[in-house]
Amino acid sequence: MNERLPTLVTITQPIMLKRRGVEMRIVVHDGAAPSQPLDQTLIDAVAKAHLALKRLTDGSKQSIATVAGNLKMDASDLSRILPLAFLSPRIVELILTGRQPPNLTLRSLTRGADLPIEWSQQEALILT
To answer: What is the pTM of this model?
Structure first.
């Protein structure tokens, strides 16, 4: 009798145990970068950029200075963060969940190179 033993295979996957009521669930990590603390400054800037864009394009003919004043910020600061309203949804999702690259900061987005308009180019620039 010459039986072959099965080959041992090891699979490594990050998991978390989560309590759900009286039971425990194994939650498999999705393979993305581990979450880090949320960058509230970056999140606030993205939110302000979207709010400012809405106010600038709602037909009320408000100037950047007026919108900036209403948001309690300087017009030059608003001009600097306004392009964040055009970030790709994937980048925004990563920011909102704390999974953005560690080097992605408000400063790097607003003081660095100009952001491309095309989302795939943004993602190539920021996420690689």
So the answer is: 0.69
Could you give the CA distance from residue 100 to residue 125 in angstroms, rounded to a whole number?
A: 13
Of 44 and 7, the one with more pLDDT:
44
Query: 41, 48, 37, 128: which is closest to 90 by C-alpha?
Result: 128
Quote the CA–CA distance of 103 and 111 in Å, as a whole number. 13
Residue 119: exposure state from Cβ atoms within 10 A (0-12, 13-18, ≥19): middle
Sign of CA dihedral 110, 90, 122, 50: negative
Contacts of 94 (CB under 8 A, 6+ apart): 100, 104, 127
DSSP 86: G
Amino acid symbol at 95: I
Residues 5 and 115: their CA atoms lie apart, in Å, by 57
- Whether the CB-CB separation of 90 and 121 falls below 8 Å is answered with no
Tokens of 27: 């939650």
Contact (Cβ atoms closer than 8 angstroms) between residue 101 and residue 33 = yes
Domains of the chain: which residue ranges? 40-127
